[in-house]
Amino acid sequence: MTTKINTYKKFSNVFLLIFALFFTFSLKSIASEPQEEIVSEVHENIGAAVSHETIKNPNANVDIAAVAMEHISDSHFWHLYGEGHDAVSFPLPVILYSNINGLQFFMSSKFNHGHDAYGNYSIVDEKIVSSNPTESLFDISITKNVAQLLFSALLIIWIFLSIASSYKKQGITSAPKGKQSFFEPLIVFVRDEIAKENIGHGYAKYVPYLLTVFFIILINNVIGMIPISANLTGNIAFTLVLSLGTFIVTNINGNKDYWKHIFLPKPFFLWLILMPIELAGIFIKPFALMLRLFANMAAGHIIVISLVGLIFVFKSIYMAPVSIAFTLFIDLLECLVALLQAYIFTMLTALFIGASTADHNHDGAHTDDDEKLVKGH
Amino acid sequence: MTSTFILASLIEPAVGLIFWTTLTFILLLVILGKFAWKPILTAINTREKGIEDALASAENALNEMRELKSSNEKILSDARTERDNLLKEARDTKDSIIAEAKAKSQSEADRIMSSAREQITNEKNAAVAELKNQVATLSIEIAEKILRSELSNDEKQKALVNNLMKDVNLN
Hints:
A: 2 domains; two-stranded antiparallel ribbon; 12 helices; globular; B: 93% helix
């Protein structure tokens, strides 16, 4: 147990360093540019991505990156097909809390596909902004992602409540049927291979939490693969909440050994170095969880849209078979990733819980087991 | 540049989605925890325990059967030994009884024989004695009858006397 965690910790630290460096640089380069200019440029580009101008002028370049980013970001409309004024999309409810006007509720169709302003409010870069500079807004609208989240929540509740009732109806002596026979192995997998394996003694308490995390990620990953659906699991707000859950569960249940290991790491002469690292590790671990799920799912969607975008980049219909072949391959890979990321998130959550609740003795933990684990990876 | 800016907005979590995700996630935890995971896990655990118990009891039954079989075999072999012993004993008993009976009958026969022989001797002796008596009686009677006929007239009496006298040597 211990050795596994330590190995993982080493890896996650390295990864995090790389991530941190990457994001620092990218943000720095953005910050050095004049802000307003970028905003207007963005707005133009998103609108014009594959719009009338492109159709009118087939030689116009398509900004695939902007299309991809638009594709994976949240929206106040559920866009089905078409571009610009011809776009077919469902309006979604907007809920705003303003320090001036209080709680407000209206449909996003008021914005006319984001082209018009509604009162003081207008949509800039998929965000609702107020023209009044003193007004601050909390946008708790039912966006595309929120709508999918609520739908998936209802779907999950329906699936598992009906499974629970079929256990009650059929009893436990008969073999599982239908949904039950599909989900029962997954439930048993989460319980045995994730919870029992990584938490050990007293794992039963955490199984419901792990199951909920596993299925909310899995179901949304799968829904996210449907072309018109939202990219919920590839949204950092969603992964933030889930990893925050991991953070809370891990630290609330942390025992004496866990805190002792963080604040009084051995050997003592390295205390000055180890203590800050261990302390940072508390935050780094869920942070890495958040980034991993977000980056994996977002990247999958970006790859698919980029491959389709190859047709527009090459401006040739003969690129289509290549794009389709690659997209098919990536989609199959995404099927695997959908399951894998749900597994990894849940497994690591269980691992962190296991690390914080295990009553182990840290002495002599770095043995040849470490090497075995590295080889195993 | 444009896309980099959107990337920045992409990694900036939206308040609304955080709010809804938190709410939904907590509700899911509560609802599923109470109405789905609890009954499902209980059912799965119960079934697994049932299967385990069934397997264990089957194993036990098998072991019991095996034990029963071995004990049966033991009983059978014991019975066989017992039977052999009994037969052997019976044979021995039979032999000894026969031998004893033989010896006994022999001695009895001997006894009977000797007693018979003794009896025969006695009887014979008695018969001989009787015969002797009879012969004596008969001899006397014959002698009497002869005497009567010899001495029926005077001449004969005289002849007899003479005859007898002839035999007697008067020394």
